[in-house]
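Notes to self after the call with IL:
- keep both proteins in one doc
- input above output, always
- annotate only the second one for now

Protein 1:
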Amino acid sequence: MRSWLFKTEPKDFSLQDLQNAPDQTTGWDGVRNYQARNRIRDEVQEGDRVLIYHSRGKNPSIVGEARVVSAPYPDPTQFQPQHAGFDPRSSEDMPRWFQVDVRYVSTYSEPLPLARMRQYPEFADLELVIRPRLSIQHITDRQYQQILALCEPEMSVPGGLVSALYG
């Protein structure tokens, strides 16, 4: 199981929108960056963890977690001329853009702002710190555990409780 950070603008789609979706599940559509698309198409797998990052507003933050619940498949919005994600160069037999379905898992008790992450040397190699514009980012297991400890302080106790719950 891998961990990912998916960025979203909360005015367009928030963690609460995911929580309120039917079955708390939705397709993660609208990715229109080739590197992010390649990660969704080639690396993201069913069962992977997803940290949801609200990228706009006063305090951009990791706010919660979701789980990937489908294999990658063509993003249907690329074929819809009325949709903002329409791509006239895509075709059903040669799609350019892909998505996965994600399901809500939790809202963190303490959102983790980017400004706070930058204060910790442990996050110096975090893609969000060094390449903040990429919308789909890999999170190492070490980074995931550190993020979880900061977002869910009551769960970061000795004895591997975090690993038992999320590992």
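Protein 2 (the one to annotate):
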Amino acid sequence: MSDYGEPPSHDGNRRTGWAELGSGETVELARIGARFGARVLDAIIVAVVLFVLILVFASASSSSDAADFSGFDVTGILLGLVVGIGYEVVQIALWGQTLGKRIVGVRVIHAAHGGLPGWGKAFGRWAIPGLLALIPLVGWLLSILCYVSATWDRVYQGWHDKAAGTLVIKK
């Protein structure tokens, strides 16, 4: 990762929207709007999957009363973890894209060499906003700030991208 900055233009000024990888390759960064759109699409997909799974588990766990959600707290948390890891981490590690990112045309890369992020970086990228969200009372706000922090970064890295060493680029 030699320089996350933008390559110099012909007049020596730094351009926005570009980053130079450690390999020397220059990549075009995904704009914040595209990243937001991908996140919204991914949230909808995950919510639908979770809703269906919750209905299935709720009806299977209570044969007489399908509306009984007692004891569902742990099951719901575990389902959320499994779906989150299965959806986000697996797709980012294997392909660099979730379904939402594919639809809007962006991809997550390893910032040093431009290849796939791999399992560790994909998990870290997912876990940081997830762990922040677990902090009582303010966690949801910190999780949102994790994503919003990309808006004031010169290469559009959120806290999760910085910690994982990833960039989001145009496909």
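Annotation: The first strand starts at residue 18 and ends at 20. The longest helix spans residues 32-61.
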